[in-house]
């Protein structure tokens, strides 16, 4: 990263060094000089992870639930509150959300292909309540866009345009956008323009190349151009590598660092 770039780099321990025990994945990413991202905290020994000395960038901010149904909202708020308590253990500043609960394969527990205007209002209200929880805890929930064409069919509020609209409507420092450029490229494209429009609302940016969801340089996205745009826009948050390794994890991290060297 050049001296002019003020953003920080993180990497997902869920998708790299998968031949190692999870705590060793965290240690390896930390040793390489990256912040660490995790998903479902309930399957992890959080005190053991904290003892590695790694800086944790984000974790999943709920276990179950959705944004629009009565029982789903209750589950979402309850498990989000529990997630905030667990975030204290590893001092994760951001807790990630999706448009609905996802199963172990990344598929929606309750698929929805259409949402009504009433659903939008309910979703915004639910997110406002989550944002209040985040603010009171000094942490931020981030709403991630997904793609429905390849990885997450049937997920409501999935597009970057959807997540951005919801975050703007809530308009709270306790809720920001996790702008995943891999998903956005599949679903919408025009990434540099998207980054510029979303910049005031971004809590984090995640990256992987298309197709294949591997590290930058393995597909069609010119991440060097994205990095240059981030520098020009003065982005000072986190860019997280949420990708599989095309060959090996060390090479994937090298490619990621090179692409965002500024």
CATH topology: TIM Barrel
The first-level CATH class is given as: Alpha Beta
| Biggest sheet strand line-up | 1-2-3-4-5-6-7-8
CATH superfamily: Divalent-metal-dependent TIM barrel enzymes
Overall shape: it is globular
Instruction: Name the beta content range.
Output: 5-15%
List SSEs in N-to-C order: EHEHEHEHEHEHHEHEH
Strand segment tally: 8
What structural class is derived from the secondary structure elements? alpha/beta
Sheet having the most strands: 8 strands, parallel, barrel
| Second-tier CATH architecture | Alpha-Beta Barrel
Distance between the termini: 5 Å
The DSSP helix count reads 9
Helices and strands, with pairings:
Elements: E1 8-12, H1 22-31, E2 35-37, H2 46-50, E3 56-60, H3 70-90, E4 94-97, H4 117-137, E5 140-144, H5 160-170, E6 175-180, H6 181-187, H7 191-198, E7 202-207, H8 223-233, E8 238-241, H9 249-259
Helix pairs in contact: 3-4, 4-5, 7-8
């Amino acid at each position: 990263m050049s001296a002019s770039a003020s953003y920080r780099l993180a990497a997902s321990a869920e998708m790299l060094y998968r031949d190692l025990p999870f705590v060793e994945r965290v240690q390896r990413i930390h040793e390489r000089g990256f912040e660490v991202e995790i998903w479902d905290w309930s399957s992890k020994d959080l005190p053991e992870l904290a003892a590695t000395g790694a800086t944790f960038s984000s974790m999943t901010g709920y276990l179950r639930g959705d944004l629009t149904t009565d029982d789903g909202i209750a589950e979402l708020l309850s498990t989000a509150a529990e997630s905030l308590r667990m975030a204290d253990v590893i001092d994760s500043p951001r807790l990630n959300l999706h448009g609905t609960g996802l199963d172990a394969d990344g598929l929606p527990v309750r698929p929805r292909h259409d949402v009504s205007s009433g659903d939008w209002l309910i979703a915004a209200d639910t997110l406002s309540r989550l944002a209040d929880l985040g603010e009171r805890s000094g942490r931020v929930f981030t709403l991630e866009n997904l793609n429905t064409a390849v990885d997450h069919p049937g997920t409501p509020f999935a597009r970057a345009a959807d997540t951005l609209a919801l975050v703007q409507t809530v308009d709270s420092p306790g809720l920001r956008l996790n702008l995943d450029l891999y998903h956005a490229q599949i679903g919408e494209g025009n990434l540099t323009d998207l980054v510029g429009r979303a910049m005031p609302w971004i809590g984090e940016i995640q990256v992987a190349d298309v197709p294949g969801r591997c590290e930058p340089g393995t597909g069609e996205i010119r991440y060097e151009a994205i990095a240059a745009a981030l520098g020009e826009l003065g982005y000072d948050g986190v860019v997280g590598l949420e990708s599989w390794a095309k060959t090996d994890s060390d090479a994937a991290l090298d490619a990621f660092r090179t692409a965002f060297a500024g």
